[in-house]
Every structure is written in structure tokens, then in C-alpha cells.
TrEMBL record:
It comes from Arthrobacter psychrolactophilus. The keyword Coiled coil does not apply. Gene3D superfamilies: MetI-like. GO terms for cellular component: plasma membrane. This is Phosphate transport system permease protein. The chain crosses the membrane at residues 24-48, 68-101, 113-137, 168-191, 212-233, 283-305. The gene is pstC. The lineage of its organism: Bacteria, Bacillati, Actinomycetota, Actinomycetes, Micrococcales.
Length: 315
């Protein structure tokens, strides 16, 4: 009488184990995503609840005595001006540095430059602020005076120039130095991921190196460049200590080379430790405004990136 042994199929145990691992990983990823949304909602809820007394208070009780809008408007403008100056300076330089490291520099030099860029991104912001306040500001007094004397007819360079060099333009330059490594580092990684087949095909058709970069690398990296710039903008909008060390509080001004003005993050950092009562709620309301500005910037950036999502290195 013959007996038949049941032999399990090869790989059945591994398949079941793989499905279990997929379920565990999927559940962990879902939990992490939900946690992020919950934390973001909790932060927004806290800011709204704590800011409500400011919105319902009488205008005379708000700092400045003219209402919350008159208080927040100058520091919102200062925040946006400083961040805009930083991006205008850092974006072209950062992209150029990334392009040099990824496509022009010799391999040995590119590796060293990459380490230097990453190291610059790790320097604490207070170091940048101290450098800006003690060295950069004092060395910009003469250029500011020249701008006021020769280009003072342009509103943004109208005098009198600051005698200390601590202006919104100085703060913007410091922020540019801070966000430049972020933009350069992320953009370099995007450039290195550009499809090599596209680059070789362009060169084989007779394109110069710059033409190859313009036709094959930059279109592929467009979304990544925008993402890098938005990350730099986020740091510039929320930077605290560097701006606090460079700027001093003052009224809203139209010129970039006069003393005065402040940013939201620096205003909160300088005044919150001693704030109480309605003043504390004012600063939290200012934080809510910065939160909304950052959220709006990220939404616009996501919309821009989605418009260019159709391009892929595989098509």
C-alpha cells in the first residue's frame, strides 16, 4: 500500500511572511501619516484658541493702540522682504553651485565641495546671526551710504542710511547665506539623478555641455529645484535668532538701508519670554499669521510642482 507525502510548495512560508511584513509596514506608514496630520491640526487649534482674545480685544489695548492689523502688518512685510531678498540672492547662486559640483567640477573636487556645502547647512543660526551683526553689518555701512547718496531717488534705497548697518537688507543677506547650502545641496542631488541616457543622447547629437544641461538636466530637475527653493523659503520665513541679532525693532519703512523693522519670528523670540496677558496672545496671534503664510507658501509650491509632474526621466 503506497502512501503519498504532502510536500508544501516552495516559498509559501516566505510569501505569507512577506504579506505580514507588508501589512505591518503599511500600518506603520498610515499611523505616521495620521500622526503628522493630528499634530498639525493640534498646533493650528492651539494657535487659533490662544489668538482669539487678540481678535476680540479693543484696538486701543493692542500694541501700538491702532488694532491688530496695524501691529502685525509691519512685521509681516519685514518677514516677506527679508525672505524675498534671501531667495533672490541664494537661488541663482545655489543652483549654479549645484550645477558646478554635479556637472563641471572634477570628481575629487566635487566630493570636497559637496562636504563643504553640507557642513555650511549644519552651522547653527546663532553663529550666522553673530557674524551678520558683528562683521557684515559694520562692513556694509559705507555701501549703504553710497546707495543713499547715488541711488536715493529709488524708494528702496532712500536715505538716511543706517549708521550701524543693521538693516532689513543685511538681514536678507544673512538669510541668503543660511539658505544657500540647503538649496545647493538638494539641487545637487536632483541634478545627479538626471537620466544619463538623455544626457548622452544630447551630447551624441552635437550639443554642447550647457545645451545638454539646458535640454536634459534642467527640465528633469525643475520640480526638485522648486522644492529646494521652497524649503529654503521656509527656513527664511521662520528664522529667529539670526534676524533678531541683526535687526532692531522699528516702524515699517520703505527703504532697505534704514534701521528698523522686524520679522514675525524675531518679534516672538525677543518679546515672548516677558509677555503676559494680552501681549502673550498678540504674539501667539502673530505666530498664527506666520503659520498661515507658511501654509499658503507650501500649497502654492505643491501646485507648481504638480503642474510639472508629467515630466519624468523615464519618458
Amino acid at each position: 500500500m503506497s502512501t503519498t507525502k504532502l510536500i508544501p510548495k516552495a516559498g509559501a512560508g516566505q510569501a505569507a511572511s512577506g504579506r505580514t511584513g507588508d501589512k505591518v509596514f503599511s500600518g506603520a506608514a498610515l499611523t505616521a501619516g495620521a500622526l503628522i496630520v493630528a499634530v498639525l491640526f493640534a498646533v493650528a487649534l492651539f494657535l487659533i484658541v490662544q489668538a482669539l482674545p487678540t481678535f476680540s480685544a479693543a484696538a486701543a489695548d493692542i500694541t501700538g493702540g491702532k488694532g491688530f492689523f496695524s501691529y502685525i502688518f509691519p512685521i509681516v512685510v519685514g518677514t516677506l522682504i527679508a525672505a524675498t531678498i534671501a531667495l533672490l540672492i541664494a537661488t541663482p547662486i545655489g543652483v549654479a553651485v549645484a550645477l558646478f559640483i554635479s556637472h563641471y567640477a572634477p570628481r575629487s573636487l566635487a566630493r570636497g565641495l559637496g562636504y563643504v556645502v553640507d557642513l555650511l547647512a549644519a552651522i547653527p543660526s546663532v553663529v550666522y546671526g553673530a557674524w551678520g551683526a558683528s562683521f557684515l553689518a559694520s562692513n556694509l555701512k559705507v555701501p549703504y551710504q553710497w546707495l543713499a547718496e547715488n541711488l536715493g531717488w529709488i524708494p528702496i534705497f532712500g536715505g538716511p542710511a543706517s549708521g550701524t548697518g543693521k538693516t532689513i537688507l543685511t538681514a536678507g543677506i544673512v538669510l541668503a547665506v543660511m539658505v544657500l547650502p540647503i538649496i545647493a545641496s538638494l539641487t545637487r542631488e536632483i541634478f545627479l539623478q538626471a537620466p544619463m541616457l538623455h544626457q548622452e543622447a544630447a551630447l551624441a547629437l552635437g550639443a554642447t555641455r550647457w545645451e545638454m544641461i539646458r535640454m536634459a538636466v534642467l527640465p528633469f530637475a525643475r520640480g526638485g529645484i522648486i522644492s529646494a527653493v521652497m524649503l529654503g523659503l521656509g527656513r527664511a520665513l521662520g528664522e529667529t535668532m539670526a534676524v533678531a541679532l541683526v535687526l532692531s525693532s522699528g516702524p515699517l519703512i520703505a527703504s532697505l538701508i534704514r534701521s528698523g523693522n522686524q520679522t514675525i519670528a524675531a518679534e516672538i523670540a525677543l518679546d515672548f519670554p516677558e509677555a503676559f496677558g494680552l501681549r502673550m496672545h498678540e504674539l501667539i496671534a502673530a505666530g498664527l499669521v506666520l503659520f498661515l503664510i507658511t501654509l499658503a507658501v507650501n500649497m502654492v509650491a505643491r501646485w507648481i510642482i504638480n503642474r510639472h509632474k508629467e515630466f519624468s526621466g523615464a519618458n
